[in-house]
Amino acid sequence: MAKRLFWSFFLVFLGGFSSLSWAEDALLEKAEALLKAGSYEEAALAYEAYLAQDYGRLEAHLGLGVALAKAGRLQEARFAFDQMTRLFPERYEGFFNLGQVLLLLGKPQEAAEALARAAELRPTEEAYLALAQALAQAGNAQGAAEALRKGLAPERSAAYRLALAQALYASGARSEAVPVLYALLNREPKVAEAWDLLALILAEEGLKGRALRELDRGLAQVEGKGRARLLLRKALLSPNPEPLLKEAYALDPGLWTAAYLLGRSRLEAKDPKGALPYLLSAYRTAPEPEVALALAGAYWALGDYQNAYRYAGEAGPAGRFLKAQAAHRLGRREEALALLEGLSTPEALSLRGVLLLELGRAEEAVAALGQAYQATPSPEVGANLGAALVALRRYGEAEVVLREVLLKAPRLSAAWYNLGLALKALDRQAEAERALRQAALLGSKEAEALLRR
């Protein structure tokens, strides 16, 4: 919005000065022609040359600022517009454009100060919208709402009224946003964003049924991509969202949230292959961490560990554990171990223990697997702990853990195999042989090889 206001204002401003005798001033005429032709660097030089002769010409300062901004030289544009405000402190143009450039520079608080002055000098819709944008970016949602409320007038557009409702909602005054939304929709019933926000507020107030009814009213008015947005909101409030999500996605394939939710529902239904097209579509539109994580999960379920590793990395901190799992499957044990550093969930401790055991660091493996087993005594973790204890020749402790595991999971071949090793080391040959035979029956190749010796 800031860019659009900035450039459209520049064109309006030049039109306002068309009656000046610029043809008599060859240098200024040249600068204007270069600017209109898109030769921004040359235009800036021409305006600078003119100002060196006459520093008090308003339109030359404005032209220089715009040329610099369009050339991407924002710091220099900031200086040009700042000079304008100092030379012409009662002119709206300098403060408004200075505020826009400061917004583009990521200085919203300074932008808000300039735009507040612009709104005082000329209370236009664009000034209040830009001021609200600056205040919102500065983290002052309440200030943004107050600015828009102050600038509200009968002639304000639907876009302005929607911005006011959104600002009120963002500031926590959602009940105050409701009458603004109803007034807007009574005038402009095809504004999808207004129906969407109204339904969201009603649902958050515990009025889910009313929210759904309002969405149906909106769906009777809105078409195209706006309709897709309302279908998405209805899906989020419905017990059976999938048909609504599919309809929304068909209307607007760029609606990444619908594609993401469809993919996630396929994942939850144990259909990773069906999830992939939706998730890839969502990721192409919006490579958000949650989408990347879902993609990594789909590839993991399909056994594509290279892509699971890639997208888990794109997911940032939330994907670290899955990235470590994929690195382990790809044979990158040291990297997987480094990725697990600082993670203390039972799953992370369990994987850390397995990696340490595979790297021959049995003492550390026992420490990690012991913590994991204490937190979540699953048979798989217990079997790995038993294997680590066997590796350390702590056969008595291994037997205790493995027998406990086998009470819960009597068909776990790894537990039978490691129990056989522990019993063999304790010189209980008959028991060891029975344990190894059971492991072999359950598919342990290692147990079969040991029995053949």
From TrEMBL:
TPR repeats: 58-91, 92-125
Alphabetical list of InterPro entries matching this protein: CellSynth/LPSAsmb/PSIAsmb (IPR051012), TPR-4 (IPR011717), TPR-like_helical_dom_sf (IPR011990), TPR_2 (IPR013105), TPR_rpt (IPR019734)
Domain of life: Bacteria
Alphabetically ordered keywords of this record: Repeat, Signal, TPR repeat
Molecular function GO terms recorded: identical protein binding
Gene3D superfamilies: Tetratricopeptide repeat domain
Secretion signal span: 1-23
SUPFAM superfamilies referenced in this protein's UniProt entry, alphabetically: TPR-like
Name of the protein in its database record: Tetratricopeptide repeat protein
Native source species: Thermus oshimai JL-2
